[in-house]
Amino acid sequence: MYCQKILAVIDPVAEQQKALHRAVKLAKMTNASITAFLTIYDFSYEMTTMLSIEERESMRSAVVEERTEWLAELIQSGVENSGVNINIKVVWHNRPFESVIHEVIEGAYDIVIKGTHDHNPLKAVIFTPTDWHLMRKCPSPVLLVKEHDWPEGGSVIAAINAGTEDEAHIKLNDKIAQSAKDFCKSLNATNHWVNAYPGTPVNIAIEIPEFDPVEYGTSVREYHQKAMKKFSDKHPLGNSQTHIEEGLPEDIIPRMAQELDAELVIIGTVGRTGISAALIGNTAEHVIDKLDCDVLTVKPDGFVSPLQPS
């Protein structure tokens, strides 16, 4: 994937800045520049009614300056950062995801990298509301990272819906495949395409006596096999690296990621927001919620963020 400008989201309370470390590694592979971006806010400063507007602004500016110095020292102390161009930006904003998206739009960044939070007892990843907002509304790809290295010779999974006939989803498949190829080339990793397809509807098998579930299941699998073959011809990849599995994507993709010990899963998101997202949900989000590895979410071409200035 084209990557010349990286926005690394800094965690104001974390000891290890996973996003920054991953951004440095990616920048060294692509010769990209990095902006270390920190959003800060303290409601108590807004409630200091005894102070004038100018005095409150002065206090906020002092906090921003202090955190800017802290971030500069953090970057300078990282020996692995040598040779990488890292800019610093600290902003005062009470909604971190909005500040990140506004920066992405204004600065035309190619990718956003943000660290995830580990749930210590289970070592599972906890995606925060900020993570979900970025995955739904950020116009650039969003890479959510865990606390581990990207070893050479690992595995990268691209979640492909090869059986779709929708033009927008076909183009999104192409975009996912290209992103996977680029990452695999940089990491010398094995590229795996995973295509999940639905099983035989149980209610039909019960209600229609002449319905043959075995024949139906065979025909559906053959359809997806042919679709994946066509997709493979379009994006050449060895058959041993394609996986066609019966089941729901939210079950199949996390299972394959665990079996293949994947470092990264790349998945397309349609960016659904509002009531439809709350009630209907998004298949991609159900998949992401079950993954315990790095996740790169990719939007369709032409996606417009709801936070895009009109």
Description:
This protein is of the alpha/beta class and 310 residues long. It has two domains: 1-147, Rossmann fold (3-Layer(aba) Sandwich), CATH 3.40.50.12370; 150-310, Rossmann fold (3-Layer(aba) Sandwich). The protein has helices at 18-30, 43-46, 53-77, 96-107, 129-137, 167-187, 202-207, 213-234, 249-259, 275-280, 283-288, and strands spanning 5-9, 33-40, 86-92, 111-115, 117-119, 124-126, 142-145, 155-159, 190-197, 242-246, 264-268, 294-298. The strands form two sheets. Strands 3-2-1-4-7-12-11-8-9-10 form a ten-stranded mixed beta sheet, with helices on both faces. A two-stranded antiparallel ribbon has the order 5-6. Strand 1 (5-9), helix 1 and strand 2 form a beta-alpha-beta unit. Helix 4 runs parallel beside helix 5 (129-137). The longest helix has 25 residues, at 53-77. The radius of gyration is 22 Å and the shape is elongated. Mean pLDDT is 84; it is low at 274-281.
Summarize the structure.
The protein is an alpha/beta fold and 310 residues long. The protein is built from eleven helices and twelve strands.
Order of helices and strands: EHEHHEHEEEHEEHEHHEHEHHE
Residue share in β-strands:
15-25%
Distance between the terminal alpha carbons, to the nearest Å?
28 Å
Nearest-angstrom radius of gyration?
22 Å
> In total, how many domains does the architecture comprise?
2
Total beta-strand segments: 12
Please give the oligomerization state of what you see.
single chain
Per CATH, the architecture of the largest domain is: 3-Layer(aba) Sandwich
Main beta sheet: 10 strands, mixed
Query: What is the helix fraction of residues, given as a range?
Result: 40-55%
Using the alpha-carbon principal axes, give the shape.
Answer: elongated
| Class by SSE composition | alpha/beta
CATH domain topology of the largest domain: Rossmann fold
Strand order of the largest sheet: 3-2-1-4-7-12-11-8-9-10
| Low-confidence spans | 274-281
Mean pLDDT: 84
